[in-house]
Amino acid sequence: MAASFTRPLFVFPFLFFSAFIFSSAVDEAQILLTFKASIEDTVNSLSTWSNTSATHHCNWTGVACTASATASLSVSSLNLRSLNLSGEISPSICQLPSLSNLNLADNLFNQPIPLHLSQCSALQTLNLSNNLIWGTIPDQISQFSSLRVLDFSRNHVEGKIPYGLGSLKSLQVLNLGSNLFSGSVPSFVFGNLSELVVLDLSENPFLVSEIPSEIGKLAKLKKLLLQRSGFYGGIPDSFLGLQGLEILDLSQNNLTGGVPEKLGLGLGNLVSFDASQNKLSGSFPTGFCQAKGLIDLSLHTNFFTGSIPDSFKECSNLEKFQVQNNGFSGNLPNGLWSLPKIKLIRAENNNFSGEIPDSISMAAELEQVQIDNNNFTSRIPQGLGMVKSLYRFSASQNNFYGDLPPNFCDSPIMSIINLSHNALSGSIPELTKCRKLVSLSLADNSFIGEIPSSLAELPVLTYLDLSDNNLTGPIPQELQNLKLALFNVSFNKLSGRVPYSLISGLPASFLQGNPDLCGPGLPNSCSEDGPKHMSAGPTKLTFVLISIAFAVSLMVVAAGFFVLYRSSKKKSHLGKWGSVFFYPLRITEQDLIMGMDEKGAICSGGAFGRVYIIRLPGGEFVAVKKLKSVGGQSLKTLKAEIKNLAKIRHKNITKLLGFFYSDDSLLLVYEFIQRGSLGDLICRSDFQLEWSIRLKIVVGAAQGLAYLHKDYSPHLLHRNIKSRNILLDMNFEPKLTDFALDRIVGESAYQSAVASEAGSSCYIAPEHGYCKKATEQMDIYSFGVVLLELITGRQGEQIEAGDSVDVVKWVRRKINMTNGASQVLDSRICSSSQQEMMGALEVALRCTSVMPEKRPTMFEVIRLLQSLDSETHLPSSFFTGGRFSTLDEHSDQSRT
Ligand SMILES: *[C@@H]1O[C@H](CO)[C@@H](O)[C@H](O)[C@H]1NC(C)=O
Ligand SMILES: *[C@@H]1O[C@H](CO)[C@@H](O)[C@H](O)[C@H]1NC(C)=O
Ligand SMILES: *[C@@H]1O[C@H](CO)[C@@H](O)[C@H](O)[C@H]1NC(C)=O
Ligand SMILES: *[C@@H]1O[C@H](CO)[C@@H](O)[C@H](O)[C@H]1NC(C)=O
Ligand SMILES: *[C@@H]1O[C@H](CO)[C@@H](O)[C@H](O)[C@H]1NC(C)=O
Ligand SMILES: *[C@@H]1O[C@H](CO)[C@@H](O)[C@H](O)[C@H]1NC(C)=O
Ligand SMILES: *[C@@H]1O[C@H](CO)[C@@H](O)[C@H](O)[C@H]1NC(C)=O
Ligand SMILES: *[C@@H]1O[C@H](CO)[C@@H](O)[C@H](O)[C@H]1NC(C)=O
Ligand SMILES: *[C@@H]1O[C@H](CO)[C@@H](O)[C@H](O)[C@H]1NC(C)=O
């Protein structure tokens, strides 16, 4: 009985309750639809937002709900970023009572600041970053009183930063970066924003303002980003109050004056300090990162017991310290050199003096030191060699003196050492441990003794500058083993015969100023054992080499037959093929296999497998690439990756039409491009393309590459740019092929295939040896090599006097030895194109810069190359200096 009574009692409120949920749901859904109605959704990102869909509105794209107090679901967050939305941001959205987060970042909204959103009473986060918002921020911005996060960055907002912002007392994040704000920033705006954790006013080039001193009162601030704006004047003393700061970026402004004396005391959380590229001067506060406790400690040693005081941990989190390109003098803070987490110290181009202390050995994570062009006066400390994470140490143009400690290059990842233009003496220590060393410059010091032959054992050493010292003895023969691009030993006291390849071979060699050196072409030609004997040696060697090569190739051929035999047998047993086409092709695997076996099939080899040009029964041609090793990937990944590559549509990229696969083979079918590869064209003796066509080819290739790098999603790297992978159609329109094969064969197979490909190493960027990850810059280097091939008319790697000559090194050597860049231009091209070619040469040299960060992006390359077409005048200073700025890059400030 009791039960039959209770039931209606329960049912009634339940009905009521669910009706309530239902009606509120309808309302909220309707509000969302009204909001959608004013939005233009060209790619239909909001297709789930529909009153006919069965999906609950809380499950619509970007919508998130939370249970409110009445236990009903209510929309609390709209995350609609990156959906290509435009149109109008309607205030109707504020009818959602619980909306606290609205993220419309990365869209195309093109309107003034949507002030009416201040009606959203619960709104805490408003993110409009990266849209096309314009106009000024009106003072009424103060109406957004509940906001905690306000992000207007990367829009076109202009005008002054309004006072009204000062009322948003709950703000924790304020990002106004990358806009067009102008005028000065009113200081007291920040006085009330005591909750602020992130303040970003960076990249507002039209600001002309002092740094508001009130910022110093924001005790909770962790990130302060003011870089690349128009701030001038001093760093406010009030900054001493920013005790919680983790990132401070003041770089690239017009700041003057000194750094406040006590800045850095108590910055226990600071991770990155950047004041570079300003006009700051005076001495850097020595207290910066100097443990207060340490000072106390020294005064009170006798009384010091117990734990280390907190202040001892000064700057213990600092990773980056950058003050380069200012006018600082005095010492760098001593404590800086031994911070436990410091990775980067840049102070070049100042007037710092003092020493590098031996305690640098404690900086166990230090990676880069750049202090060139200062007035440091000390020995190179032994402690430096104990830092095993260091890969760049650049300290040219200072007053370092004394012997180099024998361990100075012991870091196993050391790549760049520049100690040129100092006062170092003693002999050059044996370098054996730094097997990643690419560039060593010890020029213009007072080193004595011999050039250590152990240098020849550093496998990737490319730039070696020992000029202007007092070195004696011979040039070690072993140095011929290195692939040097620069070898400079001028103005020493070296003697004896110069190793053959260092005179006639690739590197830009500088030998002058050593009267006792001898060899062909030098003033002194080694009379005691004339050149006849010289040539006997190489000839004999060549003969032996050829014999060995012959024997090896016989073995390879034999092995090849064996493998072929084995695999063809195997195939006839298994022989199950599958195929996927992205274009309508009437082709069977029978056609393919037959076509590949036919005598008429033109085929050429490559690291990843052979390419066959096959005529299909219908009469059309396709190019089929038979991949060698596709072991690493599952069929599913393989298909997905190939599909991904097949979706690429660009006029300068070869179309992938489809593929065939069996258990052990993969055949990629590409469109056939009539003229074949640029590489094949260049190596023909009658190679004779006029300049305008060459320019068209490189611009097209650059566009294809830029598309892979930046426009195609996902971004791809080509990883195998070379002239043989640029195909030309009837109109000489270039098409990249062999792109992104790493995606298909897998990284390790990719690496070993590339390593096996002889004759292509000239396209590989020098940092390849020590960088684990492939980068855009590596592609850009390879592109630069192709550009050089077209400018010079030489192949990337060309055999000359029995030696393989790399075009990059050949060009640099010519330019530096002969004082005339025009000598490298292809003489088959008429001289009216010379200016354009010179412009292209400059681009090519930048692309092949040994420093990846100095290479332009592909977009920049395209712009530069396209501008050549119209450009009739180069800057008059351009070639008058005679020598190009090609080699000084490795020794940032080489003398001219
Ligand atoms: C659904 O929305 C459309 C347009 O927004 C409206 O015309 C229609 O009446 C709505 N249907 C229902 C059932 O609410
Ligand atoms: C949203 O979808 C999930 C599963 O797709 C479902 O479990 C959940 O109940 C849905 N939420 C609403 C409010 O309909
Ligand atoms: C947005 O539009 C651009 C071109 O207008 C297009 O390239 C891009 O793929 C679109 N993004 C999305 C997420 O649809
Ligand atoms: C705003 O959205 C963008 C894009 O999603 C994001 O990068 C940025 O961090 C967001 N801003 C804040 C303050 O969270
Ligand atoms: C800061 O707060 C005080 C007191 O609430 C108020 O008088 C002043 O106007 C505020 N400052 C700004 C810039 O809004
Ligand atoms: C620095 O000030 C000069 C004029 O004094 C101005 O030309 C220059 O643009 C300013 N630089 C920056 C980064 O604001
Ligand atoms: C560098 O600092 C020294 C004092 O340490 C000073 O004598 C010298 O003039 C400064 N040089 C320059 C170029 O500022
Ligand atoms: C370098 O410092 C010394 C003092 O240590 C000073 O005499 C000299 O002028 C400084 N040189 C330059 C170029 O500033
Ligand atoms: C080389 O040594 C001679 C004396 O042997 C000395 O006069 C000269 O200054 C030294 N040159 C350099 C650059 O150290």
Q: Helix fraction?
A: 10-25%
Tell me, rounded to a whole number, the average pLDDT.
81
Could you tell me the strand content as a percent range? Answer: 15-25%
Quick one: how many beta strands? 47
What is the CATH homology-level superfamily of one domain? Transferase(Phosphotransferase) domain 1
CATH architecture title of one domain? Orthogonal Bundle
The best one-word shape is: flat
CATH class of one domain: Mainly Alpha
What is the count of DSSP helices, taking H or I runs of 4+ residues?
14
Distance between the termini: 107 Å
Enumerate the distinct ligands.
2-acetamido-2-deoxy-beta-D-glucopyranose
Oligomeric status of the shown chains? single chain
Q: Which structural category do the helix and sheet elements fall into?
A: alpha/beta
Low-confidence stretches: 1-23, 292-312, 529-574, 872-896
Largest sheet: 19 strands, mixed
Q: Rg to the nearest angstrom?
A: 34 Å
CATH topology of one domain: Transferase(Phosphotransferase), domain 1
Description of the structure:
With 896 residues, the chain is of the alpha/beta class. Strand 2 and strand 3 (73-79) form a beta hairpin. The strands form eight sheets. It has a 19-stranded mixed beta sheet. A seven-stranded parallel beta sheet has the order 13-15-17-19-21-23-25, with no helix packed on it. Strands 27-29-31-33-35-37 form a six-stranded parallel beta sheet, with no helix packed on it. Residues 1-23, 292-312, 529-574 and 872-896 have low confidence and may be disordered. The longest helix is centred in the middle third of the chain and has 44 residues, at 531-574. The protein is 23% helix and 19% strand. Helix 8 (691-711) runs antiparallel to helix 11 (776-792). It starts with a helix and ends in a 26-residue tail after the last helix. Residues 56, 58-59, 73 line the site of one 2-acetamido-2-deoxy-beta-D-glucopyranose (NAG). Its main location: membrane. The chain crosses the membrane at residues 541-565.
